[in-house]
């Protein structure tokens, strides 16, 4: 039987030495987090686990060491400054495999902090914007505390859960965080056009959030019969969905449905997915499973990177030793696309960072992690063109990558390769 209580009352049932899963993305239950922090002095040796989260993450601040240890499956900007590999740590894992950590008990979930919609007339609520690994946490937790919010969209799929399985419900009425799109630069528009040239009609797309995915979507206006089976998506896809350019008609699995495991964007996106039968959010162990992904034809997976060396090794989760994101679903979809009939795994990057630092480099920085191996990479795209690496030797790869590097970096790269 669900008990409707205050956040303070719900948090009073938490004990020291427990592990807490926190719903991620824009679904972070901030009312529960605020109440947890108020009890921090009474608790010790707690573990907080989550993917990327939007909003306040004060529990990671130094004053809470000894009370909270933070295990990140994906590191967001609110956590990056506090990573010390002790009290605030990072667990690299494919997004497709994180749910199995919970379900197998390898990562124990004592308490799940969830953020859900109110129950419908049948007694079911929705995990809304983020199903990803939250469904597995819901199934695995001994104690479920949910922030119930009428502004959380109801989304079909694996996020539909029985309200009576929740132990404590805390009612709030808070707007979800919004992550608006940014104006595109000419460099980003060029990359978008170069990637769009690789996308075939009838392709199933995987792309994420940010300027490059938005630039690619903006360049697909002349395409048709595209599909969406992606780890996540954002506002940039809405115009193509509204125009019928993305109609999911050629997909082999879930035809007519846009499939993802979470979304991040603005209220326009949250309104679009609310009670929309053409949108489904499913468990990331399914959405990101390469054997599922490859069942669609022409899967075109578009991912980004921090830097790429001349052999094609991709660093995507760190700047040297400094962790800035996570493994996420890049390899899941790179591999799924490569196994798909006429699939195309793509790494799309600007040739330089906004600070002028090259992204195509002679070797990765010391301590940098290889998220995607050189054997996995098929296409690399910058504003200067497309390098096709699949089936090419190391020497051929280096030549192709140098050709799409920033013109001012090419001579140094060529010199290094000759040496």
Write the layout of secondary structure elements.
Elements: E1 3-4, H1 7-11, E2 19-22, H2 30-38, E3 46-50, E4 68-72, E5 88-90, H3 98-104, E6 111-116, E7 124-126, H4 134-140, E8 143-148, E9 156-157, E10 160-162, E11 168-171, H5 186-196, E12 204-206, H6 211-218, E13 227-228, E14 232-233, H7 238-243, E15 258-260, E16 262-263, H8 267-273, E17 279-281, H9 284-287, H10 290-293, E18 299-303, E19 307-309, E20 314-315, E21 318-319, E22 322-323, H11 330-339, E23 344-348, E24 360-361, E25 379-382, E26 385-388, H12 394-404, H13 407-418
Parallel strand pairs: 1-11, 2-3, 2-6, 3-4, 4-5, 6-8, 8-11, 9-17, 12-13, 12-18, 14-16, 15-17, 18-23, 19-24, 23-25
Antiparallel strand pairs: 7-10, 19-20, 21-22, 25-26
Helix pairs in contact: 3-4, 5-6, 12-13
Explained architecture:
This protein is α/β, with parallel strands linked by helices and 419 residues long. It is built from 13 helices and 26 strands. Strands 1-11-8-6-2-3-4-5 form an eight-stranded parallel sheet, with helices on both faces. Strand 19 and strand 20 form a beta hairpin. Helix 3 (98-104) runs parallel beside helix 4 and helix 12 runs antiparallel to helix 13. The mean pLDDT is 97.
């Amino acid at each position: 039987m669900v008990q409707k209580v205050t956040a303070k009352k719900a948090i009073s049932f938490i004990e020291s030495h427990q592990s807490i899963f926190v719903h991620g993305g824009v679904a972070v239950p901030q009312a529960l987090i605020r109440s947890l922090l108020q009890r921090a002095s009474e608790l010790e040796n707690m573990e907080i686990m989550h993917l990327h989260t939007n909003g306040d993450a004060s529990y990671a601040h130094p004053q809470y060491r000894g009370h909270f240890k933070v295990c990140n499956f994906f590191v967001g900007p609110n956590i990056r400054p506090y990573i010390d590999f002790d009290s605030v740590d990072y667990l690299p894992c494919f997004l497709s495999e994180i749910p199995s950590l919970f379900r197998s008990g390898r990562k124990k979930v004592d308490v799940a902090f969830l953020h859900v919609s109110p129950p419908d007339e049948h007694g079911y609520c929705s995990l809304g914007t983020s199903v990803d690994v939250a469904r597995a946490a819901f199934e695995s937790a001994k104690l479920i505390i949910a922030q119930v919010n009428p502004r959380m969209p109801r989304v079909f799929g694996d996020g539909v859960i029985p309200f009576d399985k929740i132990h404590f419900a805390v009612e709030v009425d808070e707007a979800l965080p919004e992550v608006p799109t940014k104006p595109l630069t000419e460099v980003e528009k060029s990359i978008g056009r170069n990637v769009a040239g690789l996308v075939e009609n009838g392709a199933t797309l995987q792309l994420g959030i940010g300027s490059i995915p938005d630039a690619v979507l903006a360049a697909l206006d002349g395409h048709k019969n595209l599909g969406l089976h992606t780890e996540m998506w954002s506002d940039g896809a809405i115009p193509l969905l509204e125009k019928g350019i993305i109609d999911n008609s050629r997909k082999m699995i879930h035809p007519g449905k846009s499939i993802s495991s979470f979304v991040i964007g603005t209220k326009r996106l949250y309104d679009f997915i609310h009670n929309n039968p053409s949108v489904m959010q499913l468990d990331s162990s399914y959405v990101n499973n390469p054997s599922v992904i490859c069942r669609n034809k022409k899967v075109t997976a578009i991912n980004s990177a921090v830097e790429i060396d001349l052999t094609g090794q991709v660093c995507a989760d760190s700047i040297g030793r400094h962790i800035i994101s996570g493994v996420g679903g890049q390899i899941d979809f790179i591999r799924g696309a490569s196994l798909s009939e006429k699939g195309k795994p793509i790494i799309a990057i600007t040739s330089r960072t906004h600070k002028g630092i090259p992204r195509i480099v002679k070797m990765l920085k010391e301590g940098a992690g290889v998220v995607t191996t050189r054997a996995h990479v098929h296409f690399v795209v910058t504003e200067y063109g497309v390098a096709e690496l699949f089936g090419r030797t190391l020497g051929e790869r280096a030549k192709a990558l140098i050709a799409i590097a920033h013109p001012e970096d090419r001579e140094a790269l060529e010199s290094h390769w000759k040496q």
